[in-house]
Amino acid sequence: MNDSRDHDKRIATMTFASVYPMYIQKVEKKGRSKEELHEVITWLTGFDDKKLKELVSKKVTFAEFFEQASINRHANLITGVICGYRVEEIKNPLTQQVRYLDKLVDELAKGKKMEKILRSA
């Protein structure tokens, strides 16, 4: 139980700016674009490119990042395993939101079609 709280705290205090370049690298290495990555992030968070750039430059934590986000109402349709965790079973809301983003980036990098990534009811 303690490990889970430590993990959640570590995720909350990690800066989005420290992970963002890795997201770009991951998708571009697999032939996808930064624009497609931004489309995925916008779908999940509601952030436009200007806001995303601002949050990266301010080096906000994931906690601050998701506090400002308007999570897509279909985000609960994101399921599956990422980083060894089944996203739909994660209890901590912030950790779940970060893993949603990780899952979407992973699907983009794996070549999944955008209409499948950007879920709808």
From TrEMBL:
Organism the protein comes from: Pseudochryseolinea flava
Domain of life of the organism encoding this protein: Bacteria
Protein name stated in the entry: DUF2200 domain-containing protein
InterPro entries the record matches: SP1917_dom_sf, UCP033199
Stored Pfam families: DUF2200
Gene3D superfamilies given in the database record: uncharacterized protein sp1917 domain
